[in-house]
Amino acid sequence: MSKLGKFFKGGGSSKSRAAPSSQEALARLRETEEMLSKKQEYLENRIQRELSVARKHGTKNKRAALQALKRKKRFEKQLTQIDGTLSTIEFQREALENSHTNTEVLRNMGIAAKAMKAVHENMDLNKIDDLMQEIAEQQDVAQEISEAFSQRVGFDDNFDEDELMAELEELEQEELNKKMANIRLPNVPSSSLPAQPDRVPGRMSSTSSSAHRSRAASSRRPEEEDDDIKQLAAWAT
Fold first, then answer.
1. Best label site of 2, 49, 100, 210, fewest CB within 10 Å?
2. Closest CA to 37 of 98, 89, 110, 115
3. Which residue segments constitute the domains of the chain, with CATH numbers given?
């Protein structure tokens, strides 16, 4: 049996010790990564230092230069081993993180499934169907009520448009007749005028001119009244 096997066997049975939790294992792996990273940085600095020593001695002191190169080779070998170890630890840490995540997801999904089961135990599919059907019926009733309220409420107003227009024209004609009746026309004399006596020529001329103006004014008055009657008739139509 190898010494490594004896070491792990002598360390005690795995059953006698409780397995660490995933959080503890992740914390230990991160600590190991940090320690190896520091060791890696130290070896890189030592390699650069030994390389500087070898260049310094060169051909002047070959023995010292060779010793520095040998130490550099040992440090490079250790650095390569640490690189491999870090890769292994990183892979193990990622796998453990994924396992922990999957465990938490599975546990939470189990809790959710139990909660859904507890909720559904108090539900009856038949009652749900009846409830949805009742809701649909009430929605239909509400829609019918809304449509009934939205309709215009009116009385029977189907009248004959021609009859209404004829009645309106009669009213307009009556109004026009009333306005025509209120217009006063001039009185026409029924007897002939008396004969005018002979007068002085100068006075006759003045009298005839005044009579002419009176007749012209009386003739213009009926014309103005005719114009008013025409305007009133145009307004009525």
1. 2
2. 89
3. 21-123 (1.10.287.1060)
CA angle, 189 as apex, 222 and 181 as ends, to 5°?
50
Judged by DSSP in three states, 178 sits in helix
Instruction: Give the max Cα distance, the chain.
Output: 184
Reading the block at residue 198, the tokens are 């002979």
| Burial category of 184 from C-beta neighbours within 10 Å (exposed 0-12, middle 13-18, buried 19 and up) | exposed
Angle at 168 between CA 164 and CA 172, to 5 degrees: 170
DSSP 5-44: HHHHHHT--TTTSPPPPHHHHHHHHHHHHHHHHHHHHHHH
**Residue 175 CA from chain centroid, whole number:** 63
98-139 per-position pLDDT tens digit = 988 898 899 999 999 998 888 888 778 788 888 889 899 999
**Mean pLDDT, the chain, whole residue set:** 77
| CA-closest candidate to residue 99, choices 212, 23, 162 | 23
